[in-house]
Amino acid sequence: MTYFSSFDRRNRSRLARFAGALYLVIILCGVWSEGIARAQLIVPGDAAATALAIAAAPGLLSLSVAADTVMACADVALAAVFLALLSTVQPLLALIAAFFRLVQAALIGAGLVALAGAPAMFAAGEAQAMALIGLHALAYDLGLVFFAVSCAAMAVLLAKAGTVPRPIYVGLALSALVYLTGSALRLFAPEQLAGFQTAYVIPLVSESALCLWLLVTGRI
């Protein structure tokens, strides 16, 4: 960790602001692709309506895949930057936060391969196409399990660092619980998920607050 320590001292503020910029890209791409673009195209449990929506706006699904690809690339970069910034706080925990974030990015990337192939599969059969869309959703939810571990590790690291306001790292700890609970519900009790959706405001607010803190202050 000697390299990270010296690199940290020379460029800490610049790196922190770069982390904030990467986080902003992740938030904007993720919210748009999952919450806006695909929300208009994918009708859960209705293959016919989904096929019609995708056929009516074929470019929108491709754009959502592109946005998620950018998001995953930014996530990989952010994992490396956070490792450089936080390895001096607790090296092993910083590695855990980075590696679990990388696994999430890998699962998202794998899911995007399935999603990108879904439109072509509608010609072969709606069931096959919806299976690919479901595979993407499964990869996304499994990715959030790993991301939850990363968030929990980040919360501890930020608390130890002592430079980030307490509400932010407490919010990240709560976000970990939200992600774990949401993924568990989607996998094992999907009928209960609708009532839990409002809880995702917690990670949105917490991660946005950390993003703004990094951009404005350059401190972590």
Order of helices and strands: HHHHHHH
Helix proportion range: over 70%
> What is the average of the pLDDT values?
92
Unreliable stretches: none
Q: Work out the strand percent.
A: under 5%
Shape: elongated
Radius of gyration: 18 Å
How many strand units? 0
Summary?
It is built from seven helices and no strands. It has 220 residues and is mostly helical. The mean pLDDT is 92.
Name the features.
single chain; mainly alpha; 220 residues
Account of the protein in words:
By secondary structure, the chain is an all-alpha fold. Helices cover 85% and strands 0% of the residues. It contains seven helices and no strands. The longest helix has 40 residues, at 2-41. It is elongated and about 55 Å long.
Question: Which secondary structure elements does this structure contain, and how are they paired or packed?
Answer:
Elements: H1 2-41, H2 47-56, H3 58-86, H4 91-121, H5 126-161, H6 166-188, H7 201-217
